[in-house]
Amino acid sequence: MTPAELKSMVRTVPDFPEPGIRFRDITTLIGDGPSLAATVGLLAEHVHKAGADAIAGMEARGFIFGAAVAVELGLGFLPIRKPGKLPVETIGVDYSLEYGTDRLEMDPGASGHGHNVVIVDDLIATGGTALAAVHLLRKTGASCDNALFVIDLPDLGGAARLREAGVTVDALMEFEGD
């Protein structure tokens, strides 16, 4: 399947989570086996070209795509978690997102020093979550210079923010005006 065919599998939900927002819902894409497999395959091609040692994904939808790509490529997966979800001492970072603030945490020993870690997530909007993940990974000594998304909402500027932080950004599809 092409990215254009996959884009047609993404459902748009108006006025969620707030009036005026058009939510891009991947439930319809991941619920269709061939579409999910094609998406994972396309993401894996990009990650392979980046020479990744490991994949990182942010809770929760980044776990879906990141773990699947890691399995496809035989790489390890590093979960970037919401606060209080890990049973060990963590490092964390607070950040701003589209609808407020949040925090991400990870096990500081999860990534080896100098490992090339690629972030894989479902969507890049304002970039707050992805930028926080980059900062966390870099705190561990990992190199995190690539981020890959299924969907980019370019009008919200997240990909540009990541590029300003020295991260190469790619996405399988874009939705303008969101």
Attribute tags:
178 residues; alpha/beta; Rossmann fold; 5-stranded parallel sheet; two-stranded antiparallel ribbon; 6 helices; 9 strands; globular
Describe the structure.
The protein has 178 residues and is of the alpha/beta class. The chain has a domain at 51-174: Rossmann fold (3-Layer(aba) Sandwich), CATH 3.40.50.2020. The chain is 33% helix and 33% strand. Strands 4-3-7-8-9 form a 5-stranded parallel beta sheet, with helices on both faces. The protein has a two-stranded antiparallel sheet with strand order 1-2. A two-stranded antiparallel ribbon has the order 5-6. Strand 5 and strand 6 form a beta hairpin. Helix 3 packs across helix 4 (61-73).
Structural class: alpha/beta
Count of alpha and pi helical runs: 6
Please tell me the overall pLDDT: 94
Largest sheet features: 5 strands, parallel
Query: Order of SSEs, N→C?
Result: HEEHHEHEEEEHEHE
In CATH, the topology of the domain at 51-174 is named Rossmann fold
List the helices and strands and how they pair.
Elements lengths: L2 H5 L3 E4 L7 E4 L1 H4 L2 H17 L4 E5 L2 H13 L2 E5 L10 E7 L2 E7 L9 E9 L3 H12 L3 E10 L5 H7 L3 E7 L4
Parallel strand pairs: 3-4, 3-7, 7-8, 8-9
Antiparallel strand pairs: 1-2, 5-6
